[in-house]
Amino acid sequence: xxxxxxxxxxxxxxxEAMRRINVLMGxxxxxxLIITACGADNAAQEEADEVTLTLVTHDSFAISDGVFESxxxxxxxTVEVLTSGxxxxxxxxxxxxxxxxxxxxxxxxxxxxxxxxxxxxAIEPYEAPALTDVPDQFELDSTHRLTPIDYGDVCVNYxxxxxxxxxxxxxxxLVSSEFKSSxxxxxxxxxxxxxxxxxxxxxxxxxxxxxxKQLRANDVTVTNGWEAxxxxxxxxxxxxRPLVVSYxxxxxxxxxxxxxxxxxxxxxxxxxxxxxxVEFAGVLAGTAHSSEARLLIDFLLSDTFQNxxxxxxxxxxxxxxxxxxxxxxxxxxxxxxxxxxxxxxIEANRQQWTERWVEIVLG
Amino acid sequence: xxxxAYYGLGWRTLAVACAAAPVAFLGLFFFYPVxxxxxxxxxxxxxxxxxxxxxxxxxxxxxxxTWQAAASTLVTVVIAMPCAALMxxxxxxxxxxxxxxxxxxxxxxxxxxxxxxxxxxEGLNGSVGFPNLNHTAGAIIVxxxxxxxxxxxxxxxxxxxxxxxxxxxxxxxLGSSSSHVFWRVTWPxxxxxxxxxxxxxxxxxxxxxxxxxxxxxxxxxxIETEIFRHAVVRGDLATSASxxxxxxGAVLCLVAVTSRLERRTSVSTQMMRSTIAPMRTTTKTTxxxxxxxxxxxxxxxxxxxxxxxxxxxxxxxxxxxxxxxxQLPTTSAEALGNSxxxxxxxxxIALCLGVVCAITIVTRHDTMSRFFDLAATxxxxxxxxTVGFGILISLNRSPVDWRTSWWIVxxxxxxxxxxxxVRSIVPMLxxxxxxxxxxxxxLGSSPLQIRAQIxxxxxxxxxxxxxxxxxxISLGEFGATSFLPxxxxxxxxxxxxxxxxxxxxxxxxxxxxxxxxxxxxxxxAAVICSEILSSGKKRRREVDLPIGS
Lengths: 363, 549
Fold this sequence. Notes:
Chain A is α/β, with parallel strands linked by helices. Helices cover 41% and strands 18% of the residues of chain A. Chain B is globular.
């Protein structure tokens, strides 16, 4: 027996074993080296003369490659973009790190979450001169801490070919028997378009609680997120429902990214159901580069940036001097009289409204 | 005695240094941030904590989280055990392909898997007696079984192959039936690996986020989704932190119980060379076909959709991976490259830390062992929101101003993968009979030589499994990554998939499918490579191993 055990310990030659141990220790060493190296790297960057601004935004942010290059050419300031989670997560993170912000400018906070940020001390006031070109309806912050950069609408979309009759024209049509078992919406507790649609019904129906009771009776489907609604239950993803809560720009995206190419979008928008979402930017309090950060806010309102918004983010520019690209100019429908609620009212009632919604729709 | 005194100093220094590495690492990147966010959030108001137990919604969430995790674990173990038996008996290229297939689910986007299962459920709904699982707890449980199939099949399979099969042979020779042999001889010795795999499955299901939101019904909130809702949607960090404390408490209890079970049932073997009893070909085929259908159908749906271009089939969606589109800050191919680099770094870190943790857990029978056991498992049981926000407010000042560094992402991945690594290795290390180490020590080997010449080679199979898990976990990780502020150009593959799927349009969806298929292919390739590498080593070892019985 002992002889066998003796054989067993010679499982591999000693050199081989030592080599493996070295590899193991080496890997730990390399990991530690990487860590220190990166630390040193950051420090070196900070010491450089040229100012680098950090723009903190949400995961849906997108902009063409050269846009911030032209800002650099104008001002000598480099812009680095940091993204983190959705709008809610961006707001929570901005407030959490208010004392020691991650960047210099925050971008992408919308009117459904802005009050939470305004109640904190995370943002510095700055009134951009270019605001003169922005219609008053977008200026929702009288303290001039949050500057409106882009906007869009959350609306009910319909799949044109799936409707036997004419498309719905008002919110109240959605509870009629004609559109029974047709609509899919998102849970306002977990989805931002879902929340916007709940706000649309609060702003746009005489009695929203009764509206949702009727909608439930009309067999509305609810999902937790936009993807599950659009690609799950809606016709676009192979589902069976012809109506879905999505964005006013969704038909344009369906057109641009159609395969095979089409001349007309397969979907349309119920303009009466649109809730206006405005996205804002602000200078983070505590930035070491306050004046440069203000320049960046100005740049976000410049035509160079504003013209890029539609094709990159499928939102609309707030500046009246910006131009819409042809696909948007031709095919997008945007409401002239969108539904809206004051941000302070949204923040004050969010919990109560969503809890009531849960009782009515899921109870 | 003299010898241990002689080796003592050097070895002890090394051991302390080794053990200090994971402690320092987890302490800095996990425990400090988590404790910091929980304490600072709770200091805003303790009432939130008391309210939780008053709220029926929170109580329901706690109850639902627990029972669905328990049910998911049970279902996973039951359906994956036959595959574990098959894996223990399958060598060669068939075995390698099987191992690659079971690991693929880790990187599949939940929304795609959800869609495939939805179609499957709706299809099955027509067949007699099959309930429609869509948007029910059943759907969540099936999806958890899908994602964790590999944990049970691979951990138990690898351990099973390493058992001393002579006992079974003897039992059979004495006339026992094969089911009798399994339940009386094999099962009791498999238990440690089953408990280890079950613990990981339970934790994975306990803190599952995407699956619950995408596949579950609307009333099915878990502690994890409630933490997200309170922290992100409502901005109520105090309540979210209270939920985190409850989650961590539950996880600690679970880890304490399973590690106790794992210890109590662990049986060391003499590591004799023996052959596992063969399986009937029909049984083998049945198990293989079942695993193929269960794991392969979402993959098949994904491949089919990725090839769909315009009205025919083609590779256009794959070509699009190299084109820059406005919706992504980099091309999909670059995002994939980022993910591969992160996965390699995360795997290296997780393996190094995991081996040290596992050796400490097995060789120290005291508080230190228990401490490492808890510390190395906890990361799987703590909400991604808590960890992400914790890092944000903790690693924020010099000398640890690291929250926005790119490498914090692979480090977060390594921390998530660590429990998988440790749980793959620990049962294997316990399998090594102490007398082997004693004999080596008696014959003059230093503790370091024992680690290097006995422990490491004998757990090589476990290390291969662990490396595959760590790589797959990192490549598929979404939650923890999305709560860390990242530079836009360090986008990962799963995040690119998510972003492609968040704008309507066939081309974007086609590209998302193609990217998912490539991610799945990358995981499969990594598993195949690690299997080939380790089987090459094994063959070499067999030559200088004159073990017989």
